[in-house]
Amino acid sequence: LINFISNYLNKFNSKYISVHFVGGEPLLCQSKCREIIKSLYDYLDNHHIICMTSLTTNLTLPLTEDAYILFDLLGKINVSIDGNELQHNTQRRSLTLVDNPYQKTINNLKILINKGLRDKIHIKGAINDDDYTGDNYREFLLTMADIGVLLDNINYGCLHPTDLKHDSVKLRTFRSLYGSKPLSMPCCKYRYNHVW
Q1: What gap in Å lies between CA 141 and CA 157, rounded to an integer?
Q2: 125 with 155: CB under 8 angstroms?
Q3: What is the DSSP secondary-structure string of the chain?
Q4: pLDDT of 46-105, one tens digit each?
Q5: Whole-angstrom Cα distance, residue 156 to residue 126?
Q6: Inter-helix orientation angle 65-73/30-46, to 10°
Q7: How far is Cα 35 from Cα 40, in angstroms, rounded to an integer?
Q8: Distance in angstroms (rounded) separating the CA atoms of residues 145 and 159
């Protein structure tokens, strides 16, 4: 990673870089993420490079001391919460046998806010069309405000359906990119809350 970043910085003569941990779920490797960030900062500090780091998580895993150290090092913590409890748990069924992923995420979010990480927390909500209403949006904002999330740090958007069979333009685009049949489908694309 350091070699790659070094080559990138040299090639583009850049004094800035951003590194984003996404998944899957990066918190499955809390100590490894922490180790990478510390090594990265050590390298970049010696070369006077400014680095922005972020991590995107569903925040359902138990948080270790490594996670808290990692969160302190990060510039931004993106947390996926998709609407209210029913909406979220419907979209994010747990693969790790968490009984209620929504409640686990909310509880961990409260812990991070209590540890002083409020300014770093950004909420990403992806809602199904059927649940994308003004009432649900207001309820979501009230819930986030009640637990202490900064409302300016919330992106609440609507999922576009991933079934492309009824959209011939998108299907043609995917076929042109990936061959005769799409090899992958987009999981989501947001129409953000500015419509409200």
Answers
A1: 12
A2: yes
A3: -HHHHHHHHHHHT-SEEEEEE-SS-GGGGHHHHHHHHHHHHHHHHHTT-EEEEEEEE---SPP-HHHHHHHHH-SEEEEE--SSHHHHHHHS--SS--S-HHHHHHHHHHHHHHTT-GGGEEEEEEE-GGG--HHHHHHHHHHHHHHT--GGGEEEEEPPPS-GGG-HHHHHHHHHHHSSS-S-------B-GGG-
A4: 888 888 999 999 999 889 998 999 999 999 999 999 888 888 888 776 665 668 899 999
A5: 6
A6: 30
A7: 8
A8: 23
Token pair recorded at residue 15: 């004094």
What is the percent of the chain with per-residue pLDDT over 90, rounded to a whole number?
Answer: 37
**Single-letter code of the amino acid located at 50:** I
In one-letter notation, the amino acid at residue 8 is Y
CA distance 146 to 141: 9
Enter the tokens of residue 186.
Answer: 């987009």
Tokens 């009824």 belong to 166
Show the tokens assigned to 163.
């079934």
